[in-house]
């Protein structure tokens, strides 16, 4: 029997397992598919909320800590596994922002570098962009190549003697003794542990229905496209009207994303493709000369206000939750997983856990 059992092998589940394994705990992780292949793979990899000044303080506290953790985490994983998560800190250009004064006031309060820049400076940084006045520039923003991050986390956990991965192992129920949770039942086997942590992403709500708990986490589909362009066509993240272009070192350019209430459907469609392509060419006109190389969809774990649920599950013993990060799973992962580890290990919490607890008011 392990000390801890993690249900869900996305970035949240894997980083939770890593936090606990680093603390010397015996950890089992159960994943219905292959670790890192759902929303963690499908996103863009920006390690900040898209418009951070528009988010609740509870999200800002987690994102600020996480943003500072990514450079060292990426370096660690690259050194330990040989798989480079490709953390890049090239900054972000915000085009066509409709609340610049709010953004600048937020930046001053947070001590975050953010400034208005001229059209000439925009062209100097990204000569593939059209001349744009009133752009905001955040030089410290970074991004990570999330599929590589998932691969490196999986490789690191696989190499740790105190971690056991159970992939392609779907949970069918929880093992209960009265109000105590002692593990899970899967199609293949029963897996027991001293404490279970549900990190099931978009599936977390469905999992907890088995315990009679209504966790307001639902799947929200996001479609994205990618172009294979010459390296250097775009060098940094560009955001305009809620859509973004994210460059990779090899010239791959990601463009996203849609927000769709489609249940657990991950199919792509031509309307979304056309909309994403129009956004891409509006941001980088040169992309009109390139075909779309990839088109895919993922399922975000939507929650009512985007604030994740982190803490003990009411009405049950020895079970906790870390889910409901919505569009910011990768953004919030280092801090939220550190926080849940603090709580289950009885350590001083990284930040005040109160805003994330599963209270009756939040569970509805």
TrEMBL record:
Keyword Coiled coil annotated: no
Oxidoreductase found in the keyword field: yes
UniProt entry keywords in alphabetical sequence: Oxidoreductase, Thiamine biosynthesis
EC number: 1.4.3.19
Domain FAD dependent oxidoreductase, chain residue ranges per copy: 3-343
Pfam families membership: DAO
GO molecular function: glycine oxidase activity
Pathway(s): Cofactor biosynthesis; thiamine diphosphate biosynthesis
PANTHER family: GLYCINE OXIDASE, SARCOSINE DEHYDROGENASE-RELATED
Name the UniProt record assigns to this protein: Glycine oxidase ThiO
Annotated source species: Vreelandella gomseomensis
């Amino acid at each position: 029997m392990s000390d801890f059992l993690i249900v869900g092998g996305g970035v949240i589940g894997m980083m939770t397992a890593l936090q606990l394994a680093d603390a010397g705990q015996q950890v089992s992780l159960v994943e219905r598919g292959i670790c890192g292949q759902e929303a963690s793979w499908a996103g863009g990899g920006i390690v900040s909320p898209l418009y951070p000044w528009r988010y609740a303080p509870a999200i800002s506290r987690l994102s600020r800590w996480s943003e500072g953790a990514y450079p060292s985490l990426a370096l660690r994983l690259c050194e330990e596994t040989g798989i480079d998560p490709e953390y890049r800190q090239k900054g972000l250009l915000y085009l066509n922002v409709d609340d610049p004064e709010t953004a600048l006031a937020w930046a001053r309060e947070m001590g975050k570098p953010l400034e208005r820049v001229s059209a000439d400076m925009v062209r100097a940084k990204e000569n593939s962009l059209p001349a744009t006045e009133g752009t905001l520039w955040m030089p410290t923003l970074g991004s990570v190549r999330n599929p590589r991050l998932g691969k490196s986390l999986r490789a690191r956990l696989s190499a740790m003697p105190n971690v056991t991965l159970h992939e392609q192992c779907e949970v069918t129920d929880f093992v209960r003794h009265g109000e105590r949770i002692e593990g899970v039942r899967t199609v293949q086997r029963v897996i027991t542990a001293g404490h279970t942590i549900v990190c099931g992403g978009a599936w977390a709500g469905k999992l907890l229905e088995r315990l009679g708990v209504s966790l307001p986490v639902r799947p929200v589909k996001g479609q994205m496209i990618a172009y294979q362009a010459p390296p250097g066509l775009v060098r940094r993240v560009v955001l305009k009207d809620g859509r973004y272009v994210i460059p990779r070192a090899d010239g791959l350019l990601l463009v996203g994303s849609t927000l769709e209430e489609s249940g657990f459907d991950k199919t792509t469609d031509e309307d979304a493709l056309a909309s994403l392509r129009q956004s891409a060419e509006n941001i980088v006109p040169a992309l009109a000369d390139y075909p779309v190389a990839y088109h895919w969809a993922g399922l975000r774990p939507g929650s009512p206000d985007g604030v994740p649920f982190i803490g003990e599950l009411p009405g049950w013993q020895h079970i906790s939750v870390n889910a409901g990060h919505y569009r910011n799973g990768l953004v919030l992962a280092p801090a939220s997983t550190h926080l849940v580890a603090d709580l289950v290990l009885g350590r001083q919490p990284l930040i005040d856990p109160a805003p994330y607890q599963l209270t009756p008011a939040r569970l509805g």
